[in-house]
């Protein structure tokens, strides 16, 4: 039984207003355009975007059951979202994380700053893999909010 602690930060600019980028996270209809694999929508997706609310998704990912279970801790409209989440794939709990999203007006639209503090369990995942996967999701977000 091992645990690896790590923090990473990603920064991305979008050619869209902070309101539109924030909606990419806060609206289930907007979020489903970019979060996860659109060719395999989750079997269960509960989304209650408010402080104390939860987001829960479960479905198949690379042939295994994947569960994303999050709780929203702090929401400042169009400025900040803080949430924690657990990620499971198959029988393994991969990690527990705290993620902060900060939205800043920029000359070209919005600068998003994402900071994640994670505990990665028993070698099932690494912070580098999580960082790269999260960066891919932020790229997918661009196609949803910039069009």
Question: Could you characterize what this model shows?
Answer:
- The protein is of the alpha+beta class.
- The chain has a single domain, classed as START domain (Alpha-D-Glucose-1,6-Bisphosphate, Chain A, domain 4).
- Helices cover 22% and strands 51% of the residues.
- The radius of gyration is 15 Å and the shape is globular.
- The N and C termini lie far apart (45 Å).
- The mean pLDDT is 93.
In a few lines, what is going on in this structure?
This protein is α+β, with helices and mostly antiparallel strands and 147 residues long.
State the secondary-structure class: alpha+beta
Q: How many distinct helices?
A: 3
Q: Any idea of the CATH topology? A: Alpha-D-Glucose-1,6-Bisphosphate, Chain A, domain 4
What proportion of the residues form beta strands (DSSP E)?
over 45%
Number of strands: 7
CATH superfamily: START domain
Shape: globular
Strand and helix layout:
Layout: E1 3-14, H1 18-26, H2 28-31, E2 44-47, E3 54-61, E4 64-76, E5 80-89, E6 92-106, E7 109-121, H3 127-145
Q: What structural keywords apply?
A:
single chain, about 150 residues, alpha+beta, Alpha-D-Glucose-1,6-Bisphosphate, Chain A, domain 4, seven-stranded antiparallel beta sheet, 7 strands
